[in-house]
Amino acid sequence: MSPWERGRGEIEGYLGQAELDVVAASDDLARRLLDDSERAAESARSLLDADPGSALTLAYDAARKAATSLLAAQGLRPTARGGHRVVQDAVGAQFDGPFERFGRMRRKRHAQQYPDADAAPATREDAEEMIAFAASCLDASRTLLESGQVGAWRE
C-alpha cells in the first residue's frame, strides 16, 4: 500500500468540501514551517512561568505548524473553511503518533483562547503538557519528512 492510501478518502472529502486546497508541494515550505514550529516551541518554554496561557497558545501553534508542514510537503493547504480542525483531521487520518491527540489539544487551546466566565486560567502544568505535545509533533513531522515518504498528494 502506498503511504498516501491511508486517509485518501478523508482527504478527498476535505478537498471536495473546500476545507483543503491542492497547491504545489513544497519541501522548502515544509522546512520553513518546521523552523517556525521550533521557534514557537522555544518561545512557549520561555513564557512558562510568566504567562502560562500564552505559553500554551504558542505551544499549540508550534504543534499546528509542525502538522501543517506535512500537508505542505504533500501540496495540501487548509482553507479558511477548514481552519485548524482540518489540519487536525488531515494529519490524524494519515499519520500515527502524536497526531492522534491533536483534537484534545486543539480543544484545550480553544478553551484557553475563548474561556467561559467560570473557567480557570491555564496553569504551568497545562502549558507544559502542550509544550510536550508540540515537541512530539515536531519530532514526528521532522522524522516523516526526512524519511522521504511524504510526497505530493497529486502528481
Describe the overall structure.
With 155 residues, this protein is mostly helical. The chain has one domain (26-147): Four Helix Bundle (Hemerythrin (Met), subunit A), CATH 1.20.120. 65% of the residues lie in helices and 4% in strands. It has 6 helices and 2 strands, in the order αβααβααα.
What percentage of amino acids are in beta strands? Answer: under 5%
Count of distinct strands: 2
CATH architecture: Up-down Bundle
What is the strand arrangement across the widest sheet? 1-2
**Count of spatially separate domains:** 1
Mean pLDDT: 92
- Percentage of residues assigned to helices: 55-70%
Shape: globular
C-alpha Rg, in Å? 16 Å
Low-confidence stretches: none
Total of helices = 6
CATH class: Mainly Alpha
CATH superfamily: Nucleotidyltransferases  domain 2
Q: Within the CATH hierarchy, at the fold level, what is the topology?
A: Four Helix Bundle (Hemerythrin (Met), subunit A)
Summarize the structure.
By secondary structure, this protein is mainly alpha-helical. 65% of the residues lie in helices and 4% in strands.
Provide keyphrases for this structure:
globular, single chain, two-stranded antiparallel ribbon, 155 residues, Four Helix Bundle (Hemerythrin (Met), subunit A)
How would the blueprint of this fold be written?
Layout: H1 8-16, E1 20-22, H2 27-46, H3 52-74, E2 76-78, H4 83-94, H5 102-113, H6 124-147
Antiparallel strand pairs: 1-2
